[in-house]
Task: structure prediction
Amino acid sequence: MLAALSLLWGGSFFFVAVALRGFPPYTLVALRVGLAAGCLLLVLRLSGLKLPRGRWPWLAFVGMGLLNNAIPFSLIVWGQTQIASGLAAVLNATSPLATVLVAHLCTRDERMSLNRIAVVLIGLLGVSVMLGRAAPTGPMGSMLAQLACLGAALSYACASVFGRRFARLGIAPLQGAAGQLLASSALLLPIALLVDRPWGLAMPGPQVWAAVAALALLSTALAYVLYFRLLRTAGAVNLQLVTFLIPVSAILLGVLVLGERLAANQLAGMALIAAGLVAIDGWVTRLVRVSAPPRA
Result:
């Protein structure tokens, strides 16, 4: 599921880059969450499930919609108007480090540990190697765009910890995905209407609409069903490790779909990321314990 989620979210940066040719940022984000919410509400109806009622579930949906959709989607899409989609994906890979810190401060069962820090540092090193010469440099507009992507990563980290309450409220993954997307749609639609005035836009071409559909149905609706299932079974920190795989998925999609070539630094970065994911099982901690001198 982690690999499938990375493929869905890795493709989202490509879909956003295509969709931005026909839609301004807030309109695109509103379309993304609105279409995804409609799709999941239909799936809920066909599955015989309903959205929960009551104040606490809907407060959780609104909070999750802000932290997991409205804020990070807007920041990333705006950032991609200034920087390349590959760099945006790489900056997004700082989410696990932020999640380790947020989970340590806000939870009791996902505290910071040597093994988790090692996993995050190895993964960040792999992402840095993959980035290569495309290090964050450039004019102020570019720097602000990079900071926006980093802000989105922090928002995702907060969302992954906040979303743990859905299991305690008895909300199923499909219900959680549909509820947060419905809440974020209600938050983003007025902003898109006020800022972008979409009724005055030219009609986009079929490629743009295809990218919007893929972004909404695959990279959002289906992805968030997997997201909430992983959050329930793997925890917040392990879930955010998917962001290490997103640059890998984006590069592999470029190789398989666009005929691009893999560079040596990309292969080395993938190897480091793979080592970081293997380290999840605790071999780093065991190695330190074995090599440490015995106490007198």
